[in-house]
Each structure stands twice: as C-alpha cells, then as structure tokens.
Design brief:
Elements: E1 6-10, E2 31-32, E3 35-36, H1 37-47, E4 52-57, H2 62-68, H3 72-80, H4 84-90, E5 97-102, H5 109-114, H6 117-120, E6 125-128, E7 132-135, H7 140-151, E8 154-160, E9 170-178, E10 181-189, E11 200-208, H8 212-218, H9 229-239, E12 242-246, E13 250-253, H10 257-269, H11 275-291
Bound molecules: uridine 5'-triphosphate.
C-alpha cells in the first residue's frame, strides 16, 4: 500500500465573505494574531509527516507564493540586528517542498483539487482547507493518515455541529461506527435545513485515493453552482469504501467573519506577549457593555 506523502491546499477561492478585504489580498493570508491562516495549515501538514505540498492558487494570490519564499533582504536585516527568534519564525515552512498550480477560474473546491491531479499522480493524498484551523494534540491530518494506513481507504474528517448549522456543510449519512470511525452510505453537500441525515459535518480535512480524480473529471456543478468535492466523494463511495473519522481536536472556522474574530481572540489569549493586556481590555469592554 502506498503511503500518504503529498497534500493539496486549495486556496483559489474568491473569499467573498471577507470583501472588500480580500479584493487584492488572499483570504488565506489574513493573519490570526501574527501569522497568516495558511501558515497554520502548512504547519499541520508538516507535523503530520507530509513531504510535498501543492497549493492551488488563482488570480490575485501571488502573496501566498511570496510568503513561503525566502526573502534574503529581510533575512539579512534581521540577522544584522540580531533578531534570530523572528528569523527562525519566518523560515518555518522551509522544512517542506511547496509547489503551486493555478486554478484559472474558481469553479469550486472539487475543481481546485482536480487541478492538482498531475502533481499527485497515482498516490493517496491529503487535502487541507485553508478555512479550517485544527488544534489537536495529534495533528488532525496525522489522525486521518493513521486511519488510512489501517484500512487503505479514503478517510474524511468530520465533527458534530448543531442542527441549525448542518446546511452550511457536507454531511455524512452513517451506517455504522467503530470508535471514532464511521462507515458511510451517503455524503450530502449542504443539505436543506431540517433535511440533514446526521449532525456529522465534513471539516476540511481529507485523505483521498487517486481514483477520486476519475469522478472529479466528469463532476457537474452542485450546491452553489460549484463543482463540489463532496459530490465526487459520494461517487467514489459507491465504488470503494470511504470512511468518515470524528477527529480529536478543536476546529476553528476562519472562513467567516465571526469565526475569524473569535479565533483571533482565542489565539491572542494563548499568546504570552499580549494575553494580559487583552484580558484587561476585554474585561473593561464587558463591564462597560453591561452598564449600557
Ligand atoms: P470556500 O467556499 O470556503 O472559500 O472554499 P471561498 O469560495 O474563497 O469563500 P467565500 O465563500 O467566497 O467567502 C473552501 C476552500 O477551497 C478553496 C478556497 O480558497 C478555500 O480555502 N477554493 C474554493 C478553491 O481553491 N477554489 C474554488 O473554486 C473554491
């Protein structure tokens, strides 16, 4: 059985929920405290043992490539000033090979993954969405890779969401479970409110076998007029087993405004440099708004 060594990070979406901030700046570069969102994702891939990453970019996404490139002028400057700690921080991603491919038109997540097919070839691979940061003792992608190693089948990361949120996600219809692992009869993208087959939602982490590309090749548009990865996974599931795995860890949705702000606050509260001052500020805010 081939091992999972490559990962796709789709980052070619328009980020319309953050306009106008994302008109000229990729959504994936919006910072959570002092690091762009996509850096947390790349870090998870590295910590999971991924050796090669391909980032799917598009129009206006040049900043992503610049971010993961070396900047010798900046490095020299930091070196001369003796700022070695920061120097180390800006070169974290050099521990992995990062490649890029452009999705010429943002036709949907399924299409973005399909754009990376030649890079993946005939191997199983991971997909990590830039919208979801997961903090876990064992990196989320690594948890899924272990499941893949045990079964040789595709594994989709899921977590439970409340009833009133199921329409925002791909939802699984489970047949049976063993521990955290589920056999699945159906994968449904964005079911209408009240029509979800369960509360187990797909959370932006996947291990897929290369046969998925056969289905993506001919996949028609689905929910939202986009080529959906979930629809192709459903077809894959009809020809070979696809498991869902309820991974351990906290998932932060940074793809929408409120999630982005709450994640920023939470990560800032874990940052020793600003924690105390932020707490004082927040306490003051809460006290004053209680008076109003
Ligand atoms: P989203 O639907 O959350 O991202 O896709 P979006 O389309 O950029 O956001 P909104 O809805 O317009 O605000 C999840 C991930 O898939 C990528 C996005 O960049 C994001 O990381 N994606 C989406 C692509 O790479 N290509 C696409 O055509 C669509």
């Amino acid at each position: 059985m081939k091992k999972v060594k490559k990962a796709i990070i789709p980052a070619a979406g328009l980020g319309t929920r953050f306009l106008p901030a994302t008109k000229a700046m990729p959504k994936e570069m919006l910072p959570i405290v002092d690091r762009p969102t996509i850096e947390y994702i790349v870090e998870e891939a590295i910590a999971s043992g991924i050796e090669d990453i391909i980032i799917v970019t598009g129009k206006g996404k040049r900043a992503i490539e610049d971010h993961f490139d070396r900047n010798f002028e900046l490095e020299d400057n930091l070196m001369n000033k003796g700022k070695f700690e920061i120097l180390d921080k800006i070169n974290q991603s050099s521990k992995v090979e990062i490649h890029y491919i452009r999705q010429k038109e943002p036709k949907g997540l399924g299409h973005a993954v399909w754009c990376a097919r030649n890079f993946i070839g005939d191997e199983p691979f991971a997909v990590l969405l830039g919208d979801d940061i997961v903090r876990a003792e064992e990196p989320c992608t690594k948890q899924l890779m272990e499941q893949y190693n045990a079964t040789g089948s595709s594994v989709i990361g899921v977590q439970t969401v409340p009833d009133d949120e199921t329409h925002r996600y791909g939802i699984i219809d489970p047949i049976s479970s063993e521990g955290r692992s589920y056999e699945v009869s159906n994968f449904v993208e964005k079911p209408a409110p009240g029509k979800a087959p369960s509360n187990l939602a797909i959370m932006g982490r996947y291990i897929l076998t290369p046969e998925i590309f056969d289905f993506l090749e001919t996949q028609e548009t689905g929910a939202g007029g986009e080529i959906q990865l979930t629809d192709a996974i459903q077809k894959l599931n009809e020809t070979q087993k696809v498991y869902a795995y309820d991974f351990e860890g906290v998932r932060y949705d940074v793809g929408e405004k409120l999630g982005f702000i709450t994640t920023t606050i939470e990560f800032a509260l874990q940052n020793e440099e600003i924690r105390e001052q932020l707490l004082v500020y927040l306490e003051d805010k809460v006290r004053k708004s209680a008076i109003i």
